[in-house]
Fold this protein.
Amino acid sequence: MGVDLGSGAGLPGLAVALAWPDSRWRLVEANGRRARALAEAVARLGLGGRVEVHRGRAEALGRQEGWRGAHHAVTARSFGPPGVTAECGAPLLAVGGRLMVSEPPEEAGERCPGAGLAELGLEAEGVTGGGARIIVLRQAKPCPERYPRRNPHKRLLF
């Protein structure tokens, strides 16, 4: 099962679910209006049996049973700064799972330093893409229980 953080209009979550018909996804969106529109899109596309829309905050879901450590993939596009995205995504991943973060091509430099990733149990696996970049991180060990913090936006991990 995969999770798309900050699904908004459904990218990349809906696109991946459509392209990968054997997959199951949870689309997470904190904004009520966007979550309702996303649920309508899931219904129109006939994905209701394998795609769920959850209105809520990723940092809260990362502490809930059935969510924490339960996913093989987490995707994020325009979710937040790298440290916040990693801190919200890592607790959701099973060991061996992947966090895939889409970034605009103009972003440059070391966006996910190794020390910050290691603290979350993540390892950098690579960067793919031509135009937009996809940063791939692997959950090498369980994310420590102290993450995600209640407000990862307040004090960035990196």
